[in-house]
Fold this sequence. Notes:
The complex is a heterodimer.
Chain A (H helix, E strand, L loop, with lengths): L1 H16 L7 H12 L5 H13 L4 H40 L7 H29 L3 H16 L9 H22 L1
Chain B lengths: L2 H15 L8 H11 L4 H13 L4 H44 L3 H29 L3 H7 L8 H16 L4 H14 L6
Helix pairs in contact in B: 1-4
Amino acid sequence: MKELLELYFAFLRIGAVNFGGGYAMLPLLEEDLVKKKGWVTTDDLMDYFAIGQCTPGIIALNVSTFIGNKKKGIAGAVAATTGFLTCPVIFILVIAMCLTNFADLPIVQNAFAGIRVCVCVLILEAVMRLWKKAIVDKPAFVIYAVIFLLMAFGGVLPVKVPAAVLVVAAGIAGILIRGHREAVK
Amino acid sequence: MNKWLLLFLEFFKTGLFSVGGGLATLPFLYEISDKTGWFSHADIADMIAISESTPGAIGINMSTYAGYQTAGILGGIEASLALALPSFIVILVVAAFLDRFKENRYVESAFYGLRPASIAMISAAGLNVVKIAIINIPAFLEGYDLSKLIIWKGLILAVVLFAARRRLKLHPVFFIAVSAVIGIVFRFAGV
């Protein structure tokens, strides 16, 4: 029970400050769960994000479920997922009840323009840290470059390639590249 | 149909079919709006702004809001849980599969390809935030004036934060809070 509460509150904390979407969650997870608590490894996190991208639902929730499940099975998954949901749900209920023009308030707009800069820095740091672990050789870099270009500048193409398709393609590419290497040996 | 059941079904469906993050829920939200009238298209636009300025993904926020409008606080909680349930079930199944096949050569090779993909998507998401916070492409395109391409306040804060993060071993939340205060004091949004 103590462990479940610990999981719940760990994710409650992350859910309370997770501005800027699922990927902005990564630096927080690294700080709290990899470095401080040692519940998961950085490799685990990268795998969870990749899978979360091509399974249904919101990535942040997918990752919470994964980590909770790894730590304490289904009960752990429930604790982590509900923990993550708690603060966002309370925030929106409060906003819906009293502040309909919340997002138009100058103080809110200015604060969040500042927070977005911080989110850029945190994401950049996360990418730099993960780089060595994920981009282990040239073919891995090619996979990175192709997907990054398609995701970031895919708007110029006539058809938008869904992220889930790219993730599946990257998995298949991984199997083919490794398979080819073993065949050459 | 009973409104509680309908609320559950609509958001369960949204959670089940929106693959790939918060904004993927948008087409489903427009559909719910047209079908049920629980919230308007303008509400969805407002919620995008609110989602950017509160923690949590837009899908969760919209389900909470719609549930609250339809059936009060309990409705908000119900719709949010309905949205979360499909991914919850799918992830448990995937996790069980992974545990069993982790040592499998094919699964391992697939992850060799998936990890760079994961970093690429994180990089692209980061670039999207940079495009709002540090560079201003619309202002640049107005007169092709390079000095207008950069949002100087944002760039300076980013450099300071980056340097500070290397020296001060403090929790990211500390830096998020400081950035909020700096944003208010120096009017980062220009209002």
